[in-house]
Structures are given as C-alpha cells and as structure tokens.
Amino acid sequence: NAGVTQTPKFRVLKTGQSMTLLCAQDMNHEYMYWYRQDPGMGLRLIHYSVGEGTTAKGEVPDGYNVSRLKKQNFLLGLESAAPSQTSVYFCASKHRVPTEAFFGQGTRLTVV
Amino acid sequence: KQEVTQIPAALSVPEGENLVLNCSFTDSAIYNLQWFRQDPGKGLTSLLLIQSSQREQTSGRLNASLDKSSGRSTLYIAASQPGDSATYLCAARPQGGSEKLVFGKGTKLTVNP
User: Is residue A27 within 8 angstroms of chain B, CB to CB?
Assistant: First the structure.
C-alpha cells in the first residue's frame, strides 16, 4: 500500500531552471493538495484540486503551476525557479467526504 | 479567515509524564480537526481525526478532544516515551465550501529518557 508517493525526494536547481514535481496516490482520492513547509512559517497551501481536470489557487500560488490530467496524479511545476522557492514540498490527498488527509514524504528542493 | 495556533512551540518533558498539547482556532465553523505527527525530515503521519459532531477520539495512548464553542482542541499523550519525540501539528478544515486544511505551526515535543 503505497499511499501518497512524491517524486523526486531531493533536487537542487539553479536559478531560472524549471522542474516538475510529481505526486501520485493510489487511494482513489478526489482531492489533492500541494503545500510548502518553511521554518517558522508552517505549512502553506500552494494549489489544490477537487477532481480530475480541476485546479485552484491556495495561499501562495505565485511562481507555481499545477495540472491534474489523471485522478491519481497531481503535478507541481516551477517554470523559472527562484531561491525563495527553496523549501520542502508536500503533497496530500483525501476523499471528498470529511475524512483524514494523507501526506507524502516530501520533496526537499534547493534553488541556488 | 481561519487561523490555527499551537502553543507552546516547543516542549521538553521527562519520560513517563502525561502531557497535553494545545491547538486553538479562530472560527468554530469547522468540518473536522486532524492531528498529525512529523518526524525530522519526514512527512506528516495522521494520528487522529475528530469530526465536528464528536467530542473526542482515542488511539492507544493518544486522546484528542474538541471544543468547537471555545475554539480549542487538545492532544493528550499518556505515559510519554522517547519515541514520542516529534513535531505535532493540528489542522482544521473550515466549513463554507472550503476544501483546504488550515495548519498550526506545530509543537516540537522532546521526551527525555
């Protein structure tokens, strides 16, 4: 039972480079989320999706894009990475009904 | 706008002590509240979920309570062990059509042998 899987686990980017983070869940969850976690700031919501083909902005969406072409996958893209995007990124998923959310193990991204 | 606060930010206790972690939220209109544990460099592990209609949930040595009227939830850990050392986060799911979880900044717990 994989749950929520994030790829990659670590990445170092140069300023201006692009990359895509992949989140995959095998629990048939409708909702998926991308958060970033920074020291002293807690977890902040970047984007989320309430179903296949839908996305919505969270608290800190600037500089990121997302896509949910398949129900089980939620992609987070950085088109032109900036040092301010150095963070740990977490993906989460849950069912539509008010049940618990499950998190991936995180992606540690450093932009130099 | 829902805001979630966890106090204290850090707590250090001797092994065997019973302890309480606090979580407060500004808007009582929530669907549920969830407690998580996060070990250093790891993801979040769900501990307990309390629906808005519930008063408490228990799992092993953990007991979480919810008082919507006062905007508070507590996580009680009985007979603490060094393995309980981690950061504990609470998250509220607001009502009103929002699908988001609003997180507190966590309480870092250290249980000393």
Answer: no
| Residue numbers in A near B105 (CB within 8 A) | 40-42
Question: Per-residue DSSP letters for B40-66?
Answer: TTS-EEEEEEEETT-SEEEETTEEEEE
Handedness of CA B21, B62, A29, A22 (dihedral sign): positive
Tokens of B2: 């829902």
pLDDT tens-digit map of B49-99:
999 999 999 999 999 999 999 999 999 999 999 999 999 999 998 887 667
- In tens, the pLDDT along B1-18 reads 889 999 999 999 999 999
CA B59 remoteness from chain centre: 13
Q: Is A96 exposed, middle or buried (0-12, 13-18, 19+ CB in 10 A)?
A: exposed
CB contact under 8 A, A41 and B42: no
